[in-house]
Amino acid sequence: MDELRELIIEKVKNKKMTFAEFMNLALYHPQYGYYQKENPFGMQGSFYTSVDASESFGRSLARGFLKAINELDLEPVLCEMGAGSGMLANDILNFYKDEEPQFYEKIEYIIIEKSEYLIDKQKELLKAHEGKISWHSFKELRDFDGVFFSNELVDAFPVHRIINISGELKELYVIYHDDKLQFYPDDFSTEELKEYINRLNIKLVDKQIADINLDAVKWIRDLGKKINKGLVVTIDYGFEAKQLYAPFRMDGTVTCYFKHTQNNDFFERVGYQDITAFVDFSALMEYGKESGLDVVNFEPQWLFLLQSGILDEIKYAESDLHKARIRSLIIPEGGFGTNFNVLIQSKGVKIPENFFYKKRSTELFNELSKIYSEI
Ligand SMILES: C[S@@+](CC[C@H](N)C(=O)[O-])C[C@H]1O[C@@H](n2cnc3c(N)ncnc32)[C@H](O)[C@@H]1O
Do 336 and 329 contact (CB within 8 A), yes or no? Predict the structure, then answer.
């Protein structure tokens, strides 16, 4: 049970490690990493995502993506990165198969997934859609035309932790001291942290911790270069930098989930619990610009789902339970309505002024008040 912890202890006895290195091992160590061995999703796992809440999530995404492909004249290609259990791909492809058979004929679905264990799971679940889906590495992706999307991918990238100690910024490293793994502040491991803090104008008060996702910077820069024409849709929990690094978030946002219970015992159950941090969407917008990604909209998930046609799902939901699950995706209080946001970026296409992903909440308000009276 403690193999990974022991392995990390051996490493840090010789040399301190950044929290990003620690998190990368805890989640993705090829043998013992959290995403490499047990099914982390749903009831038996550590956490739920919107995908587990209801198939209406995937069906709504499917509606929106089809509309975007038609309106922007994109190729019928979807690329999902970080596909987890494969359920989202399944919900999307089932929707097209059942309700848009002509589009289903043409569609090409690409999955980019880091975990070998999850790739096997996805292949098993998605057997019915054989021939439609292919698995590729991120490196292989190029000249992409279509819709590239992810749900809760970026929050699973390793983060660096920095702290303001009496006006001086330090990085928190993982060390082994007094027979335990613990944090230790020292100089930054890379200049990129300083560049990020300056560029996003992050100001921390004394003793405040911030979690910095440098992998997200690299990812969005690289991704932009790989897109020829299309949309990049990033769904995750997180905020813009000003809100994310506000002084009331003294301890940063990185946290752990073990069997649906949140904790901050980072050095316990190593490889057996999820570790995740809120996404800094400002960084995705800022660094995405470098490789030609323009911001179409940054908005709450509930609004994005309304734009994507989730109201149609409610109309056809057969049971109260199904309606309640859909509601958990869009009500602003609690559930997936609160901290979840969506960033839509584009490259190589002209976005019409009245593009449906830009529709404002006021325009949707009448429809929204109607569902509140129905559910
Ligand atoms: C929190 S899970 C979300 C899964 C799924 N999208 C959902 O919403 O249920 C994160 C997923 O991203 C994958 N992942 C993390 N880093 C990745 C990377 N660099 N390349 C591809 N997949 C990655 C993980 O293996 C896992 O499948």
Answer: yes
